[in-house]
Amino acid sequence: MTDTLDRPDLTTRLSDQFDALAELVAGLDEEQWRTPSPLPGWTVFDVLSHVIGTESLLLGDRPPARDPQAPDIDVKTLPHVRNEIGALNEIWVQRLRPRAGTELLDLYRDVIGRRRAALTAMDDAAWSAPSPSPIGEVPYARFMRVRLFDCWMHELDIADALGKRIDEGGPRGELAFAEFAQSLPRVVAKRGKAPTGSLITLVLTGPLARTLHIEVGDRARYVDAPATEPTVTLELDSGLLVRLGGGRVAADSALGRITFHGNADLGRQLVRNLAFTI
């Protein structure tokens, strides 16, 4: 697959993604802000708090002080916190939780305005420089595509929680999916344990429709024109695939929405092991 890290396009789409999140939550009442999201332990309010926290950290900001009236929680003891990144995310969520929804949205707009200015001020050397990220040390450009993917997934989380329909395709969705799809061969081989010599075909329908062929050899990789028939073909909606990969949908509950051709047992095994994001 093509690695899409063009700076003008990526920064434009990331800015568009920031706007999409703000538009999605604008006008919510306090009850809607506190609607549970697909992410364990987090409401709509908490999802946006997490985005604020990550973008604030990239600006060099520290989490706000704990409200004296709020409970003092060791975030590492929470069942949905599984690693150090999760603990850091949770600190921001916990510290922002006592605020009102309108106050949170104002803070989001302030943080995003400063992030846009910081991205604009970066030179090409900084854009290409190695940077720590959730997927290891990568060029800052790749990290920003990870940020686009993360914010796009959280847009889906909020929309699903509120029962709102959004456009999951378009330029933002394409770039976010490019980041998501880069991990799929490894996930199929390592987590799904697809056997060496197998060919996995994903026929995606919906807003990000496409056909992906993953060949499993010494390492798993995409192929444009496979030389053999697929070991298994999975036909499913693109939105379902990304929600499975994000752990937002339980695999067994989704099997009835997937059509399998070929080795269906392998197909179900792959679906049950698709969740890979933090």
**Second-tier CATH architecture of the largest domain:** Up-down Bundle
User: Low-confidence segments, ≥5 residues, pLDDT <50?
Assistant: none
Globally, the shape reads: globular
Give me the CATH superfamily of the largest domain.
dinb family like domain
Pfam families: MDMPI_C (PF07398), MDMPI_N (PF11716)
Domain MDMPI C-terminal: 174-262
Protein name: Maleylpyruvate isomerase family mycothiol-dependent enzyme
GO molecular function: isomerase activity
Feature tags:
51% helix, alpha+beta, Maleylpyruvate isomerase family mycothiol-dependent enzyme, Four Helix Bundle (Hemerythrin (Met), subunit A), two-stranded antiparallel ribbon, five-stranded mixed β-sheet, 278 residues, Nonspecific Lipid-transfer Protein, Chain A, isomerase activity, 2 domains, 7 strands, globular
Question: How would you describe this structure to a colleague?
Answer:
By secondary structure, the chain is α+β, with helices and mostly antiparallel strands. It folds into 2 domains: 173 residues, dinb family like domain (Four Helix Bundle (Hemerythrin (Met), subunit A), Up-down Bundle); 89 residues, Nonspecific Lipid-transfer Protein, Chain A, CATH 3.30.1050.10. The chain is 51% helix and 11% strand. The protein is built from 12 helices and 7 strands. It has a 5-stranded mixed sheet with strand order 5-4-3-6-7. A hairpin with a 6-residue loop joins β1 and β2. α3 packs across α4, α3 runs parallel beside α5 and α7 crosses α8. The longest helix has 23 residues. It is globular. The chain starts with 6 loop residues before the first helix and ends in a 7-residue tail after the last helix. The model has no long low-confidence stretch (mean pLDDT 93).
